[in-house]
Amino acid sequence: MEARINACLLTLKIGDITRETTDAIVNAANSGLRGGGGVDGAIHRAGGPAILEECRKIGHCPPGSAVLTAGGRLPAQYVIHAVGPIYRDGRHDEAKTLESAYRSCLVLASLHGIKSLAFPALSTGAYGYPLQQAARIALETVVSYLNTHDDIRIVHFILYNRDTYEIFKTEMQSLLST
Ligand code: AR6
User: Is residue 178 predicted with pLDDT exceeding 80?
Assistant: First the structure.
């Protein structure tokens, strides 16, 4: 599914984010930037040790923020490592932190002249964020940023399976019809 938002083409796709050829891909990192499982593990495996080396030098990234490294052996030139919230019960600022994580990626992309960007569904794996709520926040944050900035031309959400894709699709249809 795709939609034009201001100057940008926003697309939802099923796939493996490590194969994306956008200028940057976003990693679902932890605040220690130490690598891990899920999309983080996949990105470090595919991109090689240079990415983790650069992460070690940066050292730390609090939840709700993001840092940028080179892409190593990945097709993407950059990786933006974003730290989403660990979901507890929805009463610990999880929504605000998730929104801030997405927004930080977009701000970093603008700062570095990144024109195309691919996101995974931050916090929806090991960090346990309920998928529908996470999809809504992800899409609302990205659409709102794109509506007020025209430098980023392509944003993909790369969803790992059909269920996640369908939830994002429903949320995107609902968001764009309001
Ligand atoms: N491409 C796209 N999406 C993927 C891929 C992939 N190759 N692999 C998994 N996903 P998660 P989180 C999906 O757990 O919840 C790590 O250990 C996955 O199905 O990767 O933010 C970090 O080091 C899910 O929908 O990230 C942190 O400690 C989504 O990506 C912690 O997990 C996010 O799942 C971060 O947890």
Answer: no
